[in-house]
Specification:
Length: 561
């Protein structure tokens, strides 16, 4: 009950904050952000800039506002060398906003500048700050009637959604875009969209679907020049390496990584900002599978620093999950505990930073506006209210994290990291009288595997089978190890035919798992659908018994469809 109250309180807090931001965003129609004095900001930055940063500021100040339009591409390009400097993104954002405010830019120039501002805010870890220029980009694109520009803006918005872990929603946006093959620019957008779709599939544990998507990317190579294509090819190879690793094809993963590293050495452009990071992370991840522990030890601090500061939450999870697995394999409980503390601290810090950004962005805008006395009182109220919300949210987050961590220990099977029988009994009791499907799975001939190859191999089989089930199910359904070699999956709000298809996907995937030993692992199962006075647990168990007694490697069900 306490957890439910905490969750509801959290939803209310986040909803209030989100509503405020959306309301402010939707009611801001001016293309430029007039509420911030970027000229003053640029002057302040010029007092703390590095040599190259100061040179960029000086070069920009030589232009008068009537020259911005004819030189906007050069102005934007001049920022590239300082993009990785401490103040580089802020300097670039200020310069481009000044050009946008004062330069009387045409439509294409405005779109160029808004796109660059969003990128700079990404580099400055200001994810909320990316939303405003992206929405303005879409607004201008719609007014122009140019379908390619509209599609580009919508795709950029989908990318922002992924930074907030909205992978499924981002894919819906990307798939809703009406792509054409009428020009090279459309083909380039399709390339970026396909890579993003595949990366999002990897983020939600669907590597096979990611591989299927990645097979379609090479057809657009002709739209690029040689150097630009190499940039995308590096990222494509890196994603393939990650996907092959997830499905257990380690040799193919290694080959793709080697090719990506070789291509990266020849790469001279930076269209994709995160490709260097992705390659490092995949190399780190594969080192565990290849038992290259010296590489893990030598690279772990570098990768943890990347994981702690990157905007890509997916990258953070890849690094930390690799190290968690490494310390478990080494039976190093002290380092595992310390890493868990660090991970929780990073999550807390990011949550707090998100609220700070959310609040400070809007309050700065309000403070720079010419407000009357009533508005000033409203601003004071907002400040007080949001400070209170921030404090409550931080306390709420800490309590939820503690509760969740305790629940993980209580309800998780230590070997397979599936949910355990205790959690199964609680969850099954909650859905037994509702519409659901009950799938029970059993590893065929498991006793013979233990007897022939030993319990270490038996444990490896359990771990890999559980991992494969989890990969197929993703975050949408739960898997429980209820004893020995038996696993259960509970389906709710899923059509019967989809349940049958998922069950078959699990059976086929387990059957195709590669093994270092001379053995073949298959599973059998029973799938029962709820109905009037039906005990799905009992009926699924009977179907499993029939499957084991007959051919094995089969899943029987009692669907009427």
């Amino acid at each position: 009950m306490k957890k439910l109250i905490l969750l509801l309180a959290g939803i209310i807090i986040i909803s209030v904050a989100t509503a405020f931001v959306v309301n402010e965003t939707l009611h801001s129609h001016d293309v430029s952000d007039r509420s911030v004095d970027y000229k003053k900001q640029l002057i302040e930055l010029s007092t703390v800039c590095k040599s190259l940063e100061c040179q960029v500021i000086a070069d920009f100040n030589r232009f008068n506002k009537n020259e911005y339009q004819n030189n906007i591409e050069d102005i934007a390009e001049s920022i590239r060398p300082i993009i990785n400097y401490q103040n580089g993104p802020k300097i670039g954002t200020a310069i481009l906003n000044i050009a946008l405010q004062d330069g009387d830019l045409n439509e294409d120039s405005q779109l160029l500048v808004l796109d660059k501002i969003a990128t700079l805010r990404y580099k400055d870890n200001d994810l909320y700050g990316m939303i405003d220029p992206s929405l303005k980009y879409i607004d201008i694109a719609h007014e122009s009637g140019d379908e390619l520009k509209v599609a580009t803006g919508e795709f950029s918005l989908a990318l922002i959604v992924t930074y907030f872990k909205g992978y499924d929603f981002a894919n819906k946006i990307i798939n809703s875009i009406q792509y054409k093959d009428s020009s090279d620019e459309w083909k380039k957008l399709k390339t970026r969209a396909t890579l993003s779709l595949a990366e999002n599939k990897l983020a939600i544990n669907k590597p096979r679907k990611a591989l299927s998507l990645l097979e379609n990317v090479d057809q657009y190579q002709a739209a690029y020049n040689k150097e630009d294509w190499r940039d995308y090819h590096v990222y494509l190879l890196s994603l393939r390496a990650e996907a092959y690793d997830e499905v257990g094809l380690i040799e193919k993963a290694n080959q793709c990584l080697i090719l990506a590293q070789a291509e990266l050495e020849k790469d001279k452009v930076s269209l994709l900002l995160d490709k260097h990071i992705l390659i490092k992370i995949i190399e780190f991840k594969l080192a565990l599978k290849n038992e290259n522990y010296s590489l893990i030890e030598s690279k772990k601090e570098e990768l943890l620093k990347i994981a702690d500061r990157t905007n890509q939450i997916r990258f953070t999870k890849l690094v930390y999950s690799t190290l968690f697995d490494y310390y478990l394999k080494m039976n190093n409980t002290i380092e595992f505990y310390n890493l868990n503390k660090r991970y929780n601290a990073v999550r807390d810090e990011r949550q707090s930073a998100s609220y700070h950004l959310l609040i400070s962005n809007k309050l700065k805008q309000s403070e720079n506006s010419h407000l009357n006395e009533d508005h000033q009182q409203s601003l004071l109220f907002l400040k007080i209210a949001f400070v209170i919300l921030l404090v409550i949210s931080s306390l709420l987050l800490m309590m939820i994290v503690k509760i969740k961590y305790l629940n993980i220990e209580t309800y998780t099977d230590p070997l397979t990291r599936s949910l355990n029988r205790r959690k199964f009994m609680i969850d099954y009791e909650g859905i037994a009288q509702k519409d659901h499907a009950f799938l029970i799975l059993d590893i065929d001939g498991f006793k013979a595997i233990n007897d022939s190859f030993g319990h270490e191999v038996g444990d490896e089989v359990l771990e890999k089978v559980a991992s494969e089930i989890a990969l197929i199910l993703g975050n949408h359904h739960k898997c429980y190890r209820i004893g020995g070699e038996e696993f259960v999956v509970l389906f709710t709000l899923v059509e019967p035919l989809d349940c049958i298809e998922l069950a078959e996907d699990i059976r086929r995937s387990v059957e195709s798992l590669p093994w270092n030993h001379d053995l073949k692992v298959t599973i059998s199962g029973g799938l029962s659908f709820s109905g009037k006075e039906k005990n799905t647990y009992k009926l699924a168990d009977e179907l499993l018994y029939n499957a084991k007694r007959t051919s094995k490697n089969v899943i029987l069900n009692d669907s009427i469809y």
